[in-house]
Amino acid sequence: MKTWLKAGIAAAFAFATPGVALADKTKVTVYTALENDQLKPFKAAIETAVPEADVVWVRDSTGVITARFLAEKDNPRADMVVGLAASSLLMFEKAGLLETYKPAGVDKLKDVFRDNAEPYTWTGMDAFLGAVCFNTAEAGGLAAPKSWKDLLQPGFKGKIVMPHPASSGTGYLLVAGWLQSMGEEAGWAFMDGLHDNIAAYLHSGSAPCVQAARGEQLVGLALDMRGASEKTKGAPIEVIFPTEGVGWEMEATAVVKGTKNLEISKKIADWVATEDANKLFAKTYAVVAYPGADNPPANYPAGADKAMIKNDLGWMADNRERVLAEWSKRYESKAAPKK
Amino acid sequence: MSGAVEAMPAVSPRAAATRRFAISETQVAGLMIAAVAAVLVLIIALPLWALLSKSLQSVDGRFVGLQNFVTYASTPTLMASLVNSVWVAGLATAIVIPIAFVYAYALTRSRMPLKSVFTAAALLPIFAPSLLSALALIYLFGNQGMLRSWMMGASLYGPIGIIAAEALYSFPHALLILTTALSLSDGRLREAADAMGTTRRRIFWTITLPGARYGLVSAAFVVFTLVITDFGIPKVIGGQFDVLATDAYRQVVGQQNFPMGAVVGIVLLLPAVAAFFVDRRAQKRQTALLSARAVPYEPKPDRQRDAALFLFSALVALAIVATYAVAAWGSFVRYWPYNLSLTFANYDFAEVEPTGWGGYSNSLKLAGLTAVLGTTLVFVGAYLIEKIKPYRALRGFAHFLAMLPMAVPGLVLGLGYVFFFNASWNPLNVFYGTLTVLVINTVAHYYTVAHITALTSLKQLDHEFEAVSASLKRPFWTLFGRVTAPICAPAILDIAVYMFVNAMTTVSAVIFLYGADTKLASISIVHMDEAGAVASAAAMGTVIMATAIGVKVLHVALTALVFGRLQRWRRR
């Protein structure tokens, strides 16, 4: 009965349904939080490696893709997740939404980029770091910050933007980084001080740096790669890793449980673990999963691997809800106009 | 003699035989109203019900009663947003309505020159996504803006920016309703007043304003709810100033707290309920302005009045056009503000957005389908609700459903659609992520203004038309096809263009519904802006605006060519 009903309604609305897929290519729907400018080369590379695949990206910021994936859990739309924060994938794994699959060649990857708990569901691709973008053209008398504490100076009041941790993966890794490296108490105390200087919490990990690059704001706490790429475009900025170290997060890939395109998805997951794929990741990221494939992009600040703090992704996944609730309690209630 | 008897159908045996099998006109009307109500239930009520039931659940799906609402009321952040939303929306309404009223007055009741230019200029914001006005204001008054000194040190990011951008964005929505309300009035009243030497001020307060009262109330509610439910502008320019719509977005998107997002959405439904009751009261008092003997008012030249109104309209129009021109110009600038050389590079969307230009063709498909299907549904529905006498309760129900979408933030409606159309028990879930759901959702999202436009136009037709039709033994659909629809043709076309343009520009409802193949141009603007690619976001906004303006130009041409002739009977 239900099938009959579905068929009837489907026929009635047939005019609006999208066209049939190309004959020998299978559309693979991939949810991602990769940066927009990465998607074109990634699609080309995947389709070269897996010719029967036609990659269709669904891209949004980490929080949105995570929310959307969870909202669809009864009726999943994605075949794969590629380039989403590992802490989100850990949440999906817990909810039983990921296919158990260990891609060929995973064992060659750096240990930290592998799912080390059974069942094996996700594979790390690269690490992305928090960084400080500082506009030297608009600085006036202010010196570039060297450490996180420098950002607490009164001169920066209302001149700093950072990503909102609830929407942005970069925002959450910054907050989680401070809490882990400074300890909870000192971490929150630091953020209390920082909040007084914040002009706005933005919903993307890139936008704060772009705003700093365009002089709309003085300082943007943001995704490392965006700092490098804006500087390459000619923005008068300095990209800084503060001396205390920065939080980081890993982008990872997994196959979605129940996908209709399981075989092709597995092939794409295999590709993610190859050296070629990692060389592609290395064009935008300083630290990638495959040993020796690192090749920092132009204008990328030195010392990324030293700046990375000791980070526990499991902690990030398990405490996400609690940390975001506390963050929201502290800083969103004060978000009303400041005099 | 026998011929005369045969000519009377009532006693013809053949006619009597057919009548036994046919259903009566009233029954047809009843069925049609029921069908419209059923469609509205499917596209509006059920998704909202899905949302409502979500608000009574915990995150893991257990029923928790009003627990989420208690949490909401005891969270100071959320309550602060409520206060912020109300005063910002209230102030924006208070600014927009008087300006829009004077502007509409100038367009309909004066002989100032260049009226068509002023109409086009004022409608400009409707052709662009709401975000574009905010982007333009950043180019103008942002921290690196060309006119930042005008801000006198105040920050654009916050209530100032929101109110300014929302005022720009909602202005044409108010203007459409007020122009419709002012354009059809009985000229005989004015002539009688003139003949008796009534002062102009008195004419305004006793004839013009009361005549437009229904339109004013509708327009005020439309603007208020439009502003309170828009999330695009606060998202771009709100800084740390939280409003309900951004809260809903944040709860859902950032905190993944669907029940709390649902609660915020339900809080936002309150203006709809208020609008419904105010609307009902206003309707009771409203008598048909355009009786069957009415004569349209034709203003006489008056140099002083026309010059003043011209000056006022020119200022408003200039402010609107200049703002959007700046956004268009910004889309060609290579690297604002450090490299002002012009380039087409920002229009190569594939560099900053995976769908590239693909989103644009999806938007065109969506807009075309929405305009055709939406307009048909809205106008037939409005006719049945307004002009059919029986089935009062059913009509009231359908009208309530039609009024509801205005106060449902697109984001929340979209979320309701996710919960409803993606549920595994729902046979309609095959449409999730397809253009079909986007079309249905967009029709539902923009139903109210189209409905109000249709109603306002229909209300000005005297019920005598129906009475005459009935006494001539013509069924209502003959009247509808031969009289009502042709008279209202300009309003119908307005609705179609409104639907098309909004489908091109809509962001909030569809952002949760687009599928991998069906991402829209407007959604890609949000994504580009979010990533900081402001120039490309402005570029896509400019493309959308150019398309929508093209459609509007066609509309104006069609109105001049076809309706000029069809509406000639209105003149003396």
UniProtKB/TrEMBL annotation, chain A:
Taxonomy, superkingdom: Bacteria
Signal peptide interval: 1-23
SUPFAM superfamilies xref list: Periplasmic binding protein-like II (SSF53850)
Keywords: Signal
Entry's transmembrane regions: none
Pfam families (alphabetical): SBP_bac_6
Gene Ontology, cellular component aspect: outer membrane-bounded periplasmic space
Gene Ontology terms for molecular function: thiamine binding; thiamine pyrophosphate binding
Annotated GO biological process: thiamine transport
Protein name: 2-aminoethylphosphonate ABC transporter substrate-binding protein
UniProt organism field: Methylopila turkensis
Lineage: Bacteria, Pseudomonadati, Pseudomonadota, Alphaproteobacteria, Hyphomicrobiales
Automatic annotation (TrEMBL), chain B:
Transmembrane annotation, as ranges: 28-52, 86-105, 117-140, 160-182, 203-228, 258-278, 309-332, 366-385, 397-418, 430-449, 491-514, 534-563
Domain ABC transmembrane type-1 stretches: 82-279, 360-555
Broad class of the protein's primary localization: membrane
GO BP terms: transmembrane transport
Cellular component GO terms, alphabetical: plasma membrane
UniProt cross-references to Pfam families, sorted A to Z: BPD_transp_1
Keywords: Membrane, Transmembrane, Transmembrane helix, Transport
Its membrane topology: Multi-pass membrane protein
Coiled coil region boundaries: none
The keyword Transmembrane helix belongs to this UniProt entry's keyword annotation: yes
Matches recorded under SUPFAM superfamilies: MetI-like
InterPro entries associated with the record: AminoethylPonate_ABC_perm-1 (IPR017664), MetI-like (IPR000515), MetI-like_sf (IPR035906)
Annotated localization: Cell membrane
Protein family: Belongs to the binding-protein-dependent transport system permease family.
Protein name (database record): Iron ABC transporter permease
Organism: Methylopila turkensis
